[in-house]
Amino acid sequence: MALSNRPRTVPRYGTAAGTGTLAAFLLVAVGGSPMYVDWAQRGTDPTGAGGWFLRLLAWPSWRWQADEGVFATNLRAILLLVLAAALLYLLPGPQVDRVTSSGSQFLSGWGAYALAGGLSALLATLLGPHGSLFAAFQAASTGVTYGFFAGWIVGLASLGGRA
C-alpha cells in the first residue's frame, strides 16, 4: 500500500523545437554581435575553410548604430529568429513519426534553419531600403548558404529535446 498518491516525476526536458530555438538565438546573439563580426572580419583568413566558416557565422549581424542599412540588417536577424522558431514548431517530421527518431529531429532542425535563413534574407531585403527582387534573390541565396552551414548546430540542439 502506497503512502501517497504522488504522480511519477517525468524528466523535464525541453522540446526539440524549444532547444533548436535556443540554439538559433545563441547563434544570432553571439555570431551576429558587433564584437564577433568585427573580430571575424579582422582576425580570420577568408581564403581558408575555417576563416570562411567563422565569417559565415557572422552573417545574421545586428547593429546598434543608426545608419542607412541598420533597419534591414536588424530586421534580418529578428526575422531569422522568428522564422526559425516558427518553422521548428511547424515542421511535422518528429511530431508525426510513429517511432521518434533522432535523425528526423536533426534534419528537421537543420532544414528549418536553412529555410529560415533564406526567407529572412529575402523578406528583409524586400522590406529594406532600396529593395529589389534581384537583390532579394541574391540575399536569399546567401541566407540559405548560412542556414545550410550553420543549421547543423540547430539540428544537433534539436536532438536534445523530446518531440
Automatic annotation (TrEMBL):
Annotated keywords: Membrane, Transmembrane, Transmembrane helix
Membrane-spanning ranges: 12-37, 69-90, 110-128, 134-159
Source organism superkingdom: Bacteria
Stated name of the protein: Rhomboid family intramembrane serine protease
Organism of provenance: Micromonospora aurantiaca
Source organism phylogeny: Bacteria, Bacillati, Actinomycetota, Actinomycetes, Micromonosporales
